[in-house]
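Exercise 3.2. Students should predict the tertiary structure of the chain below and write it as structure tokens, then compare their answer with the key that follows.

Predict this chain's 3D structure.
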Amino acid sequence: MAKRRSPGQKRKLLIRVSMIVLAVVGLAAAYYIKGPEQVAAIQLVKQHNSAQATVASLEETEEEYRNLKGRKKTRTVYSLSYTYDVNGTRYEHDQSIGYGEYNALEGHETLEVWYAEGKPDSAKPQLIIENLAREDGLERALFDVAPKLIPALLVLNFILSLLFGREPKGKLPEGFYTENSWLDVEDDRLIVLDGSHVLSLSFDKKQRSKVQEIYQRGGLNGNFLEEILAKVETKRTLVDLNTVSKVTSEHYDDVIRLTYNDGGKDQTLSLEFLSATVKAHALQRIARALPATLNMNVEKLTRLQAARVALVVAVVSAGVAYYFLDHIWVVGLLGLLSLYALKVGVARLIDPTITTTFSGDAVASKLVVNG
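Answer key:
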């Protein structure tokens, strides 16, 4: 039996494949396509005018800069200053060079410079032009493009997965629920309702594929729970629903929060599900097993009440990010937070929060639960 993927798993797989394709296309383009500077250098090697230049200075200095985390670092930079005369006109240039070019020019008082016909003011050292013209495509792809492209695609993959890789609402994903059990492959949880008891299992994400395969296959002799407990290390919490004093669920969230009594002390437990739709399916069944002394209350917030916190977080995060413009890493994190908060705020404006609570307070009687 082939393992079924949830809609969220399919989305994340599509995003990952897209990032891999973009990486391959980007590196291939860097390998095969020569940049305009290299094309110009190749043309200049074939046809050029030359002049003899005097080395004014050849310097090695330490430069201070900030890395992606905003921390100050130092690096060695090399520069060349040279002067030359063409048709009685003197030209002066400053040129950034690499370590190899610095070593090659060290100790030289003169050097040859090349320029295109009619453009003596743009003359560059012969050594630099030849090095640029000979630049290897593989070297360019691996050392110039890859260090920038791959981290950018990893960040893009994270952002797209966060914004669009979550499980969609409105449809129960086949292979991830039964009448009394629910598998969450995002948070690595398995919830099982057994009469008046609910069992919450958590497992390591490395075991996700194994748990998913056993659950969807149905386990040995149709008992998936027994096989999972035998083959996978799990953390288990068993709650007697007769000891539950409060249940809370927000319609858009994929979590049910329980307050129950254990040994005379109140404990809390969050039951996590694959999506809000799966959570609603579970809540209907858990509600039927709750003590008759618990009553259901439904609270509906206005659009502004539901969205204001997220919108405030979005605005404040964007403002703080603007203040730290010189710190790329901080700006990236705050920008991501602002974007996510804005997404949540817009969602709550469109679909305001509805909170369902079961408690001992004297409120409305139990109704059909769908959130």
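Discussion points: The CA atoms of residues 84 and 194 lie 89 Å apart. Residues 137-164 form the longest helix (28 residues).
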